User: Fold Farnesyl diphosphate synthase from Candidatus Kurthia intestinigallinarum.
Amino acid sequence: MTNLKEFMALEMPKIEEVMLDLVEKIQAPAILKEAMSYSLKAGGKRVRPLFVLAVLDHFGKNHANGYVVGSAVEMIHTYSLIHDDLPSMDNDDYRRGKLTNHKVYGEAYATLAGDALNTLPFGIIARMTDLTAEQKVTLIELLSVAAGAEGMVGGQVLDIDGETRQLTLDELVNVHVNKTGAILRFSIESGAVLAGASDEERAILRDYAYHIGLAFQIKDDILDIEGTTEELGKTAGKDVASDKSTYPALLTLDGAKEKLDIHYKGALTALGKLPSDSTLLEELATYIVKRNK
Amino acid sequence: MTNLKEFMALEMPKIEEVMLDLVEKIQAPAILKEAMSYSLKAGGKRVRPLFVLAVLDHFGKNHANGYVVGSAVEMIHTYSLIHDDLPSMDNDDYRRGKLTNHKVYGEAYATLAGDALNTLPFGIIARMTDLTAEQKVTLIELLSVAAGAEGMVGGQVLDIDGETRQLTLDELVNVHVNKTGAILRFSIESGAVLAGASDEERAILRDYAYHIGLAFQIKDDILDIEGTTEELGKTAGKDVASDKSTYPALLTLDGAKEKLDIHYKGALTALGKLPSDSTLLEELATYIVKRNK
Assistant:
């Protein structure tokens, strides 16, 4: 996977630079900007921006707009983590091996830093200079649906519901299509919008994104069992301890691994329908299912 | 104020109908939609949508787009109240005489309902059918700035800062220009964008909005002292009890009333510069400074 490794080594610092600069240049109280940046800097795999860029790359387009839209989507993802870690939600003290936002800045500022990171991405897209107004409106509409009640937030509500009762497999799929899948789908589809892809190509990439989203979550569930707290940078074994509805809980660990393979192959099959070489997107799919954190 | 009374009686039910319909028709978990609607239905003065409509009315434009943009801005306002009422923030059990969102739905769902109401407005504006893409992008950019770190959320951070130390008058003005003022300014300016007002008219209305925003907050501070818990639908006397930086605390009650009058007159002076009759906008200014809740 030399190709992907080089791509990540090259692009991750650029994504972070653009993203932190977008926060740095807003006119806002220093402590708020600090709290926002703290969680944005906290690392993570930057999977979502990498998908935006990989799609642009697939279509042979300049990456510049991808850093901006990738930053926007990483901000949405980061706000959801800040709120998810709050005592009233998952009550996590550590995330990616660092103290969570509210452990450093207190709950009030953490709530507000999350709120600000929810709002800012829409302004960032609206202010982009190298897009038509129509492209911006399309991206904003897709992001609002993916991030809000109809996507990620709705999925989180279903997920909380699943902590108090055993979900069916269909319900579990519905949780993850929304909770994790919607924002990954936006990442992939926004790359297609930026690249001016055809409707057919967009549909193929949505299919790819569907499988990627589920594979991502199934892998997370498996890592919660097979990974270590040290590797993950968050407490391993939490799902089992809390009797949460997960793929391994519903299907056994082997059953979950089979499902993971099905969605991995589904993602590759979708890519096979694209006219041009899709090595990078294939490698990203492989990375998602083979990662150990 | 017959004119304004009739206007409010006519428009408030329409705003509520459009707003609740915009939530009702999204595809999301029923409990999430219920929690979102609960706080949207909790009443309030609907001042922000009324300003959108009053500006459209001033320019003789159809109100249809105003209901949608007014709903968007009321959603942002409502999300901020839901988060503000959380135990980690103001810890309020009642708002407008009704139980606060987290007292009914729990803190996790209240946080998520607020998040969803922060995200949805951008999608609502992006989906409007009767605007150019350029108008939508302008509205979305203005709303993102007004609602986020550079506006309302930034103001809330400054406001929390003011609970632990005595602010200067300049700092207090800065809190309120952002915390309350930014969203009121958006309400007024968005009406101008929808109406296709000239740059000069927009600048006059921004000046009007500046004075309205400060008058609104000073009046709130005065009502916290002079109003009753029953009238206000929230606990009166909280600011004094918590030794909060307010206009009366910095300027005495009489000094605060003088400031209120200055901004009231400032708002009317701005309106005097508009070419056509601005009775409704004048009456709204009067309503802001004379209200008893």
Observations:
- Chain B touches chain A through 56 residues (CB under 8 Å).
- Residues 199-226 of chain B form the longest helix (28 residues).
- The mean pLDDT of chain B is 94.
- The radius of gyration of chain B is 18 Å.
